[in-house]
Amino acid sequence: MSKYYDEEAALHTQSKTAGEKNAKVFLIGDSIRMGYCDMVKEQLSDIAEVIYPEDNCRYTQYTYVNLSAWKNLFSYPEEVKVIYWNNGHWDIAHWDGEEESLNSIEEYTKMLFRIHRRLKIYFPKARIVFSTTMPMNPNGQDSFNPRTTKEIGEYNEAAIALFEKTDVLVDDVFDKFKTLTADYFADYCHLTEEGNKLLSAHISDYIRNILNEA
User: Fold this and answer.
1) In a domain? residue 4
2) Which long-range contacts (CB under 8 A, 24 or more apart) does 186-194 make?
3) Are 139 and 96 in contact (CB under 8 A)?
4) How far apart are CA 93 and CA 201, in angstroms?
5) Fewer CB atoms near the end CB (10 Å): N or C, the chain?
6) Residue 57 belongs to a domain with what CATH number?
7) How far apart are CA 207 and CA 25, in angstroms?
8) Mind listing the pLDDT tens digit for each residue in 69-106?
9) H-only helix segments in 76-148
10) DSSP letters spanning 133-179
């Protein structure tokens, strides 16, 4: 298997090669996405080809500057029916314990809008879904680059307010999974296999409903 490294240089596996379905689904996100993407790919295999970067999509600026390369994962971008996208954990994190987050809420929402605008250009027929950022492990486990569930909630609220003014759908996974116990977390924010099964099942159902409406 090929490999990738997340923000703390922890080893994980990458995506598999895509198939030949006509309907395309594009998953964009950080290492939380990398935990569920293979499961979503399998769960939607009867209805769509699910494609995602092998790369960790990291923070909003990183996502923005790499979109021009990631769009080349598709021979025909107009076949992309759904984009399921998140940025958040990296933007909110206090890198090396600094007082400020990597991006302020204002910087974060500005970049979200720029990414949204670019996605509309690259994938003109796609329905765009923004997924809110998942909470931290409720046991309060330390991380290399700390952030709190309270902060995540504030950034999520700003993102929801932003996208209420657009045609972007918001899947509020933060609200849906905010009561997950520590048993579903592998560390400070990443999920166990059972946690990823719960999250992937929800995301697959959400995307499937959009595809069935098309």
Assistant:
1) no
2) 187/137, 187/141, 187/143, 188/136, 188/137, 188/141, 188/142, 188/143, 189/32, 189/89, 189/134, 189/135, 189/136, 189/137, 189/143, 190/31, 190/32, 190/35, 191/32, 191/35, 191/36, 191/134
3) no
4) 27
5) N
6) 3.40.50.1110
7) 8
8) 999 999 999 999 999 999 999 999 999 999 999 999 99
9) 89-92, 105-122
10) PPPPPTT----SS---HHHHHHHHHHHHHHHTTSS-EEE-HHHHTTT
Annotate 169-208 with three-state secondary structure: EEECHHHHCCCCCHHHECCCCCECHHHHHHHHHHHHHHHH
Q: How far apart are the first and last CA of the chain?
A: 35
Domain residue limits at 206:
21-213
Residue with tokens 């379905």: 21
The SS3 of residue 4 is: strand
Residues 14-66 have pLDDT tens digits of 443 344 457 999 999 999 999 999 999 999 999 999 999 999 999 999 999 99
Q: Specify the number of domains making up the chain.
A: 1
152 phi, psi to nearest 5 deg: -60, -40
> How far apart are alpha carbons 14 and 207 in whole angstroms?
21
- Does some domain include residue 106? yes
Q: Which residues lie across from 63 on neighbouring strands?
A: none
Q: How many residues does the chain have?
A: 214
- Gap between the Cα atoms of 125 and 214, Å rounded: 11
Indicate the pTM of the whole model: 0.91
Task: Tell me the C-alpha distance between 96 and 195, whole Å.
Answer: 27
